[in-house]
Amino acid sequence: MNEPLEQLRKELQYEKTNRCVQCGYCLPVCPTYITMRKETHSPRGRINLVKMVGEGRITDLSVLEEPLNLCLGCRACETACPTGVEYGAILEASRAALARRKKFSVPVRLLRRTMFKKVFSSKRIMKFAGSMLWLYQKSGLQKAARVSGALEKLPYHLGVFTEAIPPLERGRIPVRIKARREKKYTVAFFTGCVMDAVFQRINRLSVLLLAEAGCDVIVVPGQTCCGALHAHAGEVEEARRLAKQNIAAFEKEDVDFVVNNAGGCGAILHEYGHLLGKEEEWKERAESFAAKSRDISQVLLACGGLKNLKPRSGERVTYQRSCHLTNVQKVVNEPLALLKSVPGIEFVEMEEAQMCCGSAGIYNIVHYNEAMDILDEKMKHTKATGASAVITTNPGCLLQMKLGIERENLSGSMRAVHLVEYLAEAAGIS
């Protein structure tokens, strides 16, 4: 075998493709296979393409681009797989190999460099963007843009998503807050980049709920973006840099857990050990950080849940599962247990509950039509529950489900809300 092919095999993590026996158990749980009905847009089809590249049977790597780009990365296939194929690792490695070789146009290269290396990783820029969006909502500009039709002219259907963003909140989250009842744990709170800029209210309520449950909470300075968007786009080196910055920041505090409230962020925090596993200096530190990483639902339940919740008699509720919370972090029962602890609600599980909603980071922006096809499938099952509240645990899911409710003309009878917001309502925390 020549050296270039050997190197390519290592980059693609070719050896991991050999665990796939092409059984097809992944097909019924793959959103893109369900909506597109193409073998190349199924997990086993994508793995087979990577395998053929690694074996030299395909020499043009551009063949991988569309199948890999149209993958949501929901990793439901990993949960369904009987042989333990590490699909996420194969996908991440293959996307990175493509990104290293692709000759982007100058505008696209500049945009990627700006967004991935300057914007998402900068608290200052992200907060400024959030403040501008808050001003846009508060000043009447949003109403004017809606009436004038300007929103329809924005690229990538951004006007649609702008309308789905809930009212923003500006202010300061307490940096340190003491437990409001018997202390159970000391935790550090991960604010994220988009969560901090756009969903600051959910972050603030998260800190207050943790304190209410019995946690001393520290919002660690120096933390940054989790790196998930970078890893998904093949910018793995930048994702590693952000991971190191976060690990170094959180190591300065002696805490029991590092708590997040976004399924997508939590997934990559959970996998920092994998991300930095080949760097001797960081491997052990990354694994230690990942071992402390928890979704907020896990910590609230570990504290014994929330007390004195107000009854919400007769409210029918369903739960939209975050793919990365379910398939990567393997957090399945905790959000449901917290939901069911709210007195008086009627919980209805939707059919195909594990199916992705089509958000997947920025997938619904860059692949709008494909994402809407997946969302329409999800909404069939959501509508059938007859629920008045759809609970989510990830910001992308929240916006996507809000959009789905609008597309189905259900905004008068159904709402989408983050689990943290719903629990805060029941706890009387505003």
CATH architecture of the largest domain: Up-down Bundle
Q: Sheet with the most strands?
A: 5 strands, mixed
Terminal CA distance reads: 64 Å
Residue stretches low in confidence (pLDDT < 50, at least 5 long) are none
Major beta sheet, strand line-up: 1-3-2-4-5
Query: What is the CATH fold-level name of the largest domain?
Result: Glutathione S-transferase Yfyf (Class Pi), Chain A, domain 2
Tell the overall outline: globular
Compute the average pLDDT: 94
User: Roughly how much helix do the residues carry, as a percent range?
Assistant: 40-55%
What is the count of distinct domains? Answer: 4
CATH class of the largest domain: Mainly Alpha
Domain 4Fe-4S ferredoxin-type: 10-39, 61-85
Function: Component of a complex that catalyzes the oxidation of glycolate to glyoxylate.
EC number: 1.1.99.14
Organism: Aneurinibacillus thermoaerophilus
Describe the structure.
This protein is of the alpha/beta class and 430 residues long. The chain has 4 domains: 3-101, Orthogonal Bundle (Fumarate Reductase Iron-sulfur Protein, Chain B, domain 2); 106-164, no CATH class; 176-301, Glutathione S-transferase Yfyf (Class Pi), Chain A, domain 2; 307-427, Rossmann fold, CATH 3.40.50. Helices cover 53% and strands 8% of the residues. The protein contains 24 helices and 9 strands. The strands form 2 sheets. Strands 1-3-2-4-5 form a 5-stranded mixed beta sheet. Strands 7-6-8-9 form a 4-stranded parallel beta sheet, with helices on both faces. α18 packs across α20. It is globular. The chain starts with a helix and ends with a helix. Residues 10-39, 61-85 form the 4Fe-4S ferredoxin-type domain. Its EC number is 1.1.99.14. Its cofactor is [4Fe-4S] cluster.
